[in-house]
Design a protein that fits this description.
This protein is α/β, with parallel strands linked by helices. The protein is built from 9 helices and 5 strands, in the order βαβααααβαβααβα. It has one domain: P-loop containing nucleotide triphosphate hydrolases (Rossmann fold, 3-Layer(aba) Sandwich). A 5-stranded parallel sheet has the order 2-3-1-4-5, sandwiched between helices. The longest helix has 17 residues. Bound molecules: 2'-deoxycytidine-5'-monophosphate.
Length: 209
């Protein structure tokens, strides 16, 4: 059983994915962390993000055992991940791991930008989670402040708009809802309400769960 969750930056898909996975006893993969980890390798080495070959090499040799490193979750890493994720060889290198993750029993929840379209096109349930850029920026602002990052709201909003633009308009695996995905707009939902709404969709789409 695979639950595919896609959506733009800071739409809450990661939190939702984790809660759904916990609820069903499934494994959960926040695939954005893979792209963040690749970007992290380049930044650590001082390699420019424009070096496509270095990015592809970092993706091919990625050590996936440190995806819980807190530094991957910062704003700088998200922006860097958005840049290197547009390179096709980087995406190709990360595909097999994601598909393998999705094949585990009793099930897996994967969240990202292209899960329902490219990584798991046969997923049992596909959710597309969205919210207005202003609401996503507000949530990200609160989250970063809580983590001790001293940031203003306005630059976060510009950052989210820039990432939406890049993620949606890139040539390779652009962010978009799969034709058979169900869209959930969480602009006016808190995390609990979003979870219950998503759970209802999953139970309706895959009654065997
Ligand atoms: O979900 P996130 O903010 O952690 O993702 C960081 C960047 O990684 C995002 O801007 C685009 C890229 N990404 C991707 O291209 N495909 C995915 N499945 C997940 C993330």
């Amino acid at each position: 059983m695979i639950i595919a969750i896609d959506g733009p930056a800071a739409s809450g898909k990661g939190t939702l994915g984790k809660r759904l996975a916990d609820h069903f006893g499934f494994a959960h993969l926040d695939t954005g962390l893979l792209y963040r980890a690749v970007a992290g390798v380049l930044l650590d080495r001082g390699t420019p993000l424009t070096d496509r070959d270095a990015a592809a090499e970092a993706a091919e040799n990625l050590d996936v055992s440190h995806l819980d490193a807190p530094n991957l979750r910062g704003a700088e890493m998200g922006e860097a991940a958005s840049v290197i994720s547009a390179y096709q060889p980087v995406r190709d290198a990360l595909l097999a791991f994601q598909r393998q993750f999705g094949s585990q029993e009793p099930g897996a929840v994967l969240d990202g930008r292209d899960i329902g379209t490219i990584v798991c096109p046969d997923a049992d349930v596909k959710l597309f989670i969205t919210a207005t850029p202003e609401e996503r920026a507000r949530r990200r602002h609160v989250e970063l402040l809580r983590r001790g990052e001293n940031v203003e709201y306005e630059p976060i909003l510009s950052d989210i708009r820039r990432r939406d633009e890049r993620d949606m308009n890139r040539a390779t695996a652009p962010l978009k809802a799969a034709a058979d995905a169900i869209t959930l707009d969480t602009t006016h939902l808190d995390a609990d309400a979003a979870f219950w709404a998503a759970l209802a969709i999953v139970e309706k789409s895959a009654p065997k769960t």
